[in-house]
Amino acid sequence: MQSITVLGATGSIGTSTLDVVARHPDRYRVFALSAHRRVEQLAQLCGRFRPEYAVVPDPAAGARLRELLAADGCGAEVLEGTAGLAWVAAHERVDAVMAAIVGAAGLEPALAAARAGKRVLLANKEALVTAGRIFVDAARAGGATVLPIDSEHNAVFQCLPPAAQADAGALDAGGVRRILLTASGGPFRTRALHELAQVTPEQACAHPNWSMGRKISVDSATMMNKGLELIEAHYLFGLPEERIDIVVHPQSVIHSMVEYLDGSVLAQLGNPDMRTPIAHALAYPERISSGVGALDLPALGRLDFEPPDPLRFPCLRLAREALRAGAAAPCVLNAANEMAVAAFLERRLPFTAIAEVNERVLDALGGRRAPDDLAGALALDEEARALAAARIPRLAA
Ligand code: NAD
Ligand code: MG
């Protein structure tokens, strides 16, 4: 029986995780759940999954949750804030932690799980972009197993030889030449370029293949998501930027590929449903059912591929530049992007200005020294957010 903490339980990944967990009550029990704003939904999940702890951001949310849990006769202990998240991520009775908080806000608890040597199911790519080296070193020192949930990275992981799954340093010895990340191209892949300045948050969040949270949906529309994934792949698999390529594949059926020295290319395919990578990471190295239906290739008929359009997707270039520059650049780019996306979702910034905010902040702060600990990464993240906040009103005009 595995004991699991689900951070970000009310989100898209959190909900899919609990769907898979509920299919296997003989294998998994829920130790702790967390949520940010949706306290009512968290209370319902507590009623259903009976965790020992539930974590919310502050005392007001804590008081509300305690009331709801008491009315429901649920005995979960309520914790608050980042300290509460880190506590349930590192607790000695926890085996696996699903890190599914969105944004750099998820860094501290993910890092706590890594340090404590947990099986870390990593959906929160921003944690790795903000503090890649720090996170990887902490996982190694703590003896943690990091299993990627992001569908592309999970696909790459599945296509690697076992020695390279166990140790990112072993990709060369395993004959890996390059990683090919697939990208859907998002909702605006074929939209006329001159219309992009006017697109709305609703249009940006209407992804053709995946149902996801709003922030990652906007990132998919700008392809910043693939940029973040490029950086994520670098830290997870230890390959340099020039050995990670991106190919647009609008059907999202091939989730990514690994190319070997002999010319073989291994791919992982499946219906676009996050329960597949979640079930894979939960049960690895075993396999369990996920609730995802069989892939019907004849019904699909064809799979298409094209290169990403650099004019349409400037964020992809920024992410490559940030990864090449290293140092503070990935952390700074991620922070700027979180601010720009939030402003776009609140209709304070046009879609096309997201890339402009990102570029200005990256230019201004990307050359800083790499942070060497959590406090340094959080301070840099904070500074980049402040600069982005100052630039947003000007770029909105
Ligand atoms: P979501 O917006 O649906 O859910 C986010 C979760 O995080 C919620 O439970 C929310 O309560 C919590 N949260 C938000 N802000 C918080 C804060 N400041 N502090 C603590 N908790 C907070 O997002 P999602 O789509 O589930 O994505 C979660 C993560 O997984 C992201 O990093 C995303 O990039 C990654 N991911 C998602 C998908 C997907 O299909 N949804 C695919 C790959 C990777
Ligand atoms: Mg992905």
UniProtKB/TrEMBL annotation:
KW NADP (keyword) present: yes
Matches recorded under Gene3D superfamilies: 1.10.1740.10, NAD(P)-binding Rossmann-like Domain
Binding residues annotated for 1-deoxy-D-xylulose 5-phosphate, in chain numbering: 125, 151-152, 184, 207, 220, 225-226, 229
EC number: 1.1.1.267
Catalytic activity: 2-C-methyl-D-erythritol 4-phosphate + NADP(+) = 1-deoxy-D-xylulose 5-phosphate + NADPH + H(+)
Cited Pfam families: DXP_redisom_C, DXP_reductoisom, DXPR_C
Positions of the 1-deoxy-D-xylulose 5-phosphate reductoisomerase C-terminal domain: 146-237
InterPro entries reported in the protein's UniProt record: DXP_reductoisomerase (IPR003821), DXP_reductoisomerase_C (IPR013644), DXP_reductoisomerase_N (IPR013512), DXPR_C (IPR026877), DXPR_C_sf (IPR036169), NAD(P)-bd_dom_sf (IPR036291)
Binding site for Mn(2+): 150, 152, 229
Tagged with keyword Oxidoreductase: yes
Cofactor(s) the protein requires to work: Mg(2+); Mn(2+)
Pathway: Isoprenoid biosynthesis; isopentenyl diphosphate biosynthesis via DXP pathway; isopentenyl diphosphate from 1-deoxy-D-xylulose 5-phosphate: step 1/6
Catalytic class of the enzyme: oxidoreductase
Annotated DXP reductoisomerase C-terminal domain residues: 269-386
Name of this protein: 1-deoxy-D-xylulose 5-phosphate reductoisomerase
Gene source species: Quisquiliibacterium transsilvanicum
Protein encoded by which gene: dxr
